[in-house]
Specification:
With 386 residues, this protein is of the alpha+beta class. Helices cover 69% and strands 8% of the residues. Strand 2 and strand 3 form a beta hairpin.
């Protein structure tokens, strides 16, 4: 018998030695497939398909607007055309507040959102607190951020409140209360802005009112000291008296001249001359009251007119300050903002979350991509080792 016939085929010994390695590689791939793909997918099917508690979603749409709309400039219009216009600051403020801790505190006080999110009928991975969350306010705030969202459409300026809960009524209550909080915030912003805008104008009105009061007090003080209500009227009365006395004086002098021509020796001439002297003395006295010393009516009239002028100027200043205040208030009202509800929070009639099929497919696709990456890396490492 030939010895060559008993020899094994070329490479048979090498294949026999490498068969255990092939088996190990096959088992590793199967284990990797089960661990990375099958197990997560089965877990997703069990949780999302059978266990996950359905959640109802209530949505509301609103827009933050002002009473006075301003026209867009050329640059703003260009940015808006490309969809990159700067978002209105007021809308950002409202959105930030809705997602803030202050809003969570107020919601907890108003509708007890902690009890809503902690519904015992919900599964462990959905209700608050989940095993990775703390039963604290910070944990509630993190859970709220997962359940309530504000989606802003910058191209249309419309914001959407998205609220989730395990009961349809609870989801609607959360969305409605969120809008109420937003309206309260806008009202506070309007009140503060109006107060800031009118503060200086109101202070000017107060100063003008005080000047009027001071001017009136000075005028009253002068009247009490001079024992005159209106010196100008008193001077008019004195002038009337002087006019009357002068007319009487002229008549008496005319009578004297007439008697001297007709009856020079009559005793009436002496009487009339005495009357003329008395009238002249009275006229001088009345003129002395009008002018001539510090107690004359001319000095009092001058002081009175100065005081009345100060009062009139104070009145005009008060009227101007009041008009300016009304103008500032009107302008502040035109610059106010308000929330216009486009769509009221709806009462959902069926749960929208979780989207079971989509989530299961997402887990499957993620698992497949992870498996492919791991397999490629392992093959590359094996080739590098050989």
């Amino acid at each position: 018998m030939s010895h060559t016939a008993a020899l094994p085929p070329p490479g048979a010994q090498q294949r026999a030695k490498s068969s255990p390695g092939l088996i190990r590689d096959y088992l590793r791939r199967r284990l990797l497939w089960l661990t990375v793909v099958i197990a997560p997918t089965v877990a997703a099917v069990i949780y999302y398909g059978l266990w996950a508690t359905p959640r109802y979603v209530s949505e509301a749409e609103f827009i933050v607007r002002g009473l006075s709309s301003s026209r867009l400039t050329g640059l703003d219009a260009l940015f808006k055309t490309f969809g990159i216009a700067r978002t209105v600051d007021d809308t950002n403020i409202v959105q930030s507040y809705i997602l803030s801790r202050d809003a969570v505190k107020q919601l907890q006080s108003d509708i007890d959102i902690k009890a809503i999110f902690s519904d015992p009928r919900a599964d462990l991975f959905s209700r608050f607190p989940r095993f990775w969350e703390s039963d604290s306010f910070e944990g509630l705030y993190a859970h709220y951020a997962w359940r309530v969202k504000v989606i802003q459409d910058t191209t249309r300026g419309i914001s959407t409140v998205h609220a989730e809960a395990f009961q349809a009524e609870d989801a609607q209550r959360i969305a409605s209360q969120v809008l109420t909080l937003a309206e309260r915030l806008v009202n506070r912003l309007n009140e503060r802005a109006q107060a800031d805008a009118t503060r200086s104008a109101e202070e000017e009105v107060q100063r003008a009112e005080q000047r009027v009061l001071d001017a009136q007090a000075e005028l009253t003080k002068f009247r009490n000291a001079a024992t005159l209500v209106d010196p100008s009227k008193s001077s008019t009365s004195a002038l009337d008296t002087i006019t009357t006395l002068t007319r009487d004086l002229v008549q008496a002098q005319a009578q004297i001249q007439q008697l001297q021509q007709t009856s020079p020796s009559t005793p009436q001439i002496a009487v009339l001359q005495a009357r003329v002297e008395a009238l002249k003395a009275r006229i001088e006295t009345e003129r002395g009251k009008l002018a001539g010393n510090d107690e004359s009516l001319a000095v009092k009239v001058s002081a009175y007119e100065r005081l009345t002028l100060n009062r009139d100027l104070a009145d005009k200043s008060l009227a101007a300050a009041t008009l300016s205040l009304e103008s500032v208030r009107s302008k502040a009202r035109r610059q106010q903002i308000y929330i216009e509800k486009i769509a009221q929070p709806n009462l959902p009639d069926e749960p929208m979350e979780p989207r079971r099929l989509r989530l299961i497919i997402t887990v499957l696709m993620t698992a497949l991509m992870s498996y492919a990456v791991i397999w490629i890396l392992s093959v590359g490492a094996k080739e590098k080792a050989q």
